[in-house]
Write a structure and sequence with these properties.
Strand content: 25-35%
Largest sheet: 11 strands, mixed
Structural class: alpha/beta
Number of helices: 17
Distance between the termini: 58 Å
């Protein structure tokens, strides 16, 4: 295909996806949204937040008031030390959510999925978010609650910064219509706009999202050039059934050998990890791991413990797990366990494991690192870049200045974005501000989110986040400074600092300049924080401070 038609097809696919994602009148939502959180306080927070925000029922459908859908079920992963892994974690969160649906709404999730009456999605949000530090600390360990510098309207008419999780829920809803009778599972820190068709008819009991590269299987040279030896890779057969298998971090020759059972390989590409399972497969997995689920013991992940033993021959599986340091006897026993489950499973005319291609030209935004958070969001000021245009459209940005009061004394360039903010004087250039209240600002190349102060000064690559400052000097951030405030339930606040150049994961145990504790120590201090109560306290502090300035 020539370049022009291919570019047109890509753009049409992106446009189609964005049109569905941004349809406020009829938003694309799963009937049931399940959030797997770290603790019960976070579960309470997300149940309320999503029900009143991106998962609220459209006003046009609220007339009858009888349907419990869309339904939000947030549950905590109260597992034994070390965690359940995303495999057992998925099954446990689903079962816990199913009990909550029965108790709170009188709804039998398993029956409705079995009958293909509803669609359901589960979002994994647990984890420390070390590489994004110190932003998750400012949200009291509520990592998915990290705010983006764009505001959206909640059900009470208020405007607040959209969180990372809300963006993910908004994006992934485009697959809901195709997945009645299935549980979809996503990770809570990535957003993408597919350049391949998102509407499809599932043909396999398990399908995993991936980026298929090219129309043919790569050669050894292409495999190396595309870096496929560094990823979990999905391979799809040329056969009519388009069956797939998964390998992980192997060279071309090893992959070819391991994938012989598929037959001729048609396409390959890196896995996204996100997947969906049919109701029968979900029930089979819950049954197979019923002992571990009842005891809240064990740790199994989807890729190495579910999908690879289900799709690879024993020898190949044992070899791969050996690279992970797993004893051969242990790997062999686990493969035999999954093979036995597979033999007893009734495919009922469907394939076992397939692929869902998101397109090699999909637009991506990953929020797992502080540098990426800055890079993604400062791109809102770039009105020439095509990916930035997609980002603004996805976030619902229609104008660079929205719902804000900007004083006549403010010098602001055409590129800067200001959302739901009040600024009386100063200069704003190449920056993004959301939910900011200040008498004066002098910012250049900075991102400022949910900050209230008499004066705010910030240089390039700076991030200011969740800060309330009533001093005359105000907030001062040099180039590359990252300053956040950590609020406690009693209203006390502590600043936590970092640098644009610092990876929180590498500095996790260090006490950085300007701090009194490490990110790890702050994470421990924030454990079991009542994030709903703290959010209420933080809002009151912002209101009191801005009122004292006359804003």
């Amino acid at each position: 295909m020539s370049e022009a038609p291919a570019k047109k097809i890509k753009q049409e696919a992106l446009d189609a996806a964005l049109s569905v994602m941004t349809n406020a009148e009829s938003p694309a939502l799963y009937d049931v949204t399940i959030i797997c959180t770290t603790d019960d306080h976070q579960a309470e927070y997300w149940t309320k937040r999503l029900s009143e925000g991106v998962c609220r029922a459209p006003s046009s459908s609220a007339e009858g008031g009888s349907s419990p859908f869309p339904m939000v079920l947030a549950v905590s992963e109260d597992w034994s030390a070390g965690g359940a892994g995303n495999g057992l974690g998925t099954l446990y969160a689903y079962q816990k959510a199913a009990r909550a649906a029965e108790e709170k709404h009188g709804v039998d999730l398993a029956a409705l999925l079995r009958d293909k009456t509803i669609s359901a999605a589960l979002y994994h949000t647990a984890g420390k978010g070390t590489r994004l530090a110190p932003l998750p600390a400012s949200e009291n360990n509520n990592k998915p609650g990290v705010k983006l510098p764009v505001c959206h309207e909640l059900s009470d008419g208020s405007f607040e910064p959209m969180t990372v999780l809300e963006a993910v829920v908004k994006q992934t809803g485009i697959y809901a219509a195709s997945r009645k009778g299935r549980l979809s599972v996503y990770w809570g820190d990535q957003v993408f706009i597919p350049s391949a068709a998102f509407s499809y008819t599932p043909t396999h009991h398990v399908d995993i999202m991936c980026t298929l590269l090219g129309d043919t299987a790569p050669t050894a040279e292409e495999w190396a050039e595309q870096g496929l030896d560094k990823y979990g890779v999905i391979a799809v057969s040329k056969g009519v059934g388009r069956d797939a298998a998964q390998v992980e971090k192997v060279d071309h020759a090893t992959a070819v050998k391991m994938l012989q059972s598929l037959g001729d390989i048609g396409q390959v590409g890196p896995s996204l990890g996100s997947f969906s399972v049919s109701a029968p497969m979900l029930e089979a997995l819950c049954g197979e791991y019923s002992t571990e689920l009842a005891a809240k013991a064990g740790k199994f992940d989807t890729d190495p413990h579910f999908w690879m033993p289900l799709t690879l021959p024993e020898e190949a599986y044992v070899s791969l797990m050996g690279q992970k340091g797993v004893d051969a006897a242990e790997a062999k026993a686990h493969h035999e366990r999954m093979t036995k489950m597979k033999a007893a499973f009734d495919l009922n005319g469907m394939g076992l494991f397939g692929a869902v291609d998101v397109g090699s030209d999909a637009a991506w935004w990953d929020y797992g690192q502080l540098k990426l958070y800055y890079k993604n969001n400062i791109s809102l000021t770039d009105f020439d870049d095509e990916t930035a245009k997609l980002y603004r459209r996805f976030l619902g940005v229609k104008s660079p200045k929205e719902n804000s009061s900007i004083g006549s004394d403010v010098k602001i360039d055409d590129k800067s974005c200001v959302f739901s903010s009040t600024v009386q004087s100063g200069t704003i250039s190449d920056s993004v501000l959301a939910s900011v209240a200040a008498l004066s600002v002098e910012v250049n190349g900075a991102i400022i989110v949910n900050c209230t102060a008499k004066s705010i000064k910030a240089g390039k690559n700076a991030i200011l986040y969740n800060i309330v400052d009533d001093s005359d000097e105000g907030i001062v951030a040099a180039d590359g400074d990252v300053i956040v405030s950590v609020t406690e339930e009693d209203g006390s606040m502590m600043e936590l600092r970092s640098k644009h150049s610092i990876c929180g994961g590498q500095a996790w145990k260090k006490v950085l300049d300007g701090n009194t504790m490490s990110f790890e120590q702050m994470h421990g201090k924030n454990k079991e924080a009542n994030v709903s109560a703290i959010e209420k306290t933080r809002k009151n502090l912002h209101k009191q401070a801005s009122a004292s300035f006359g804003l």
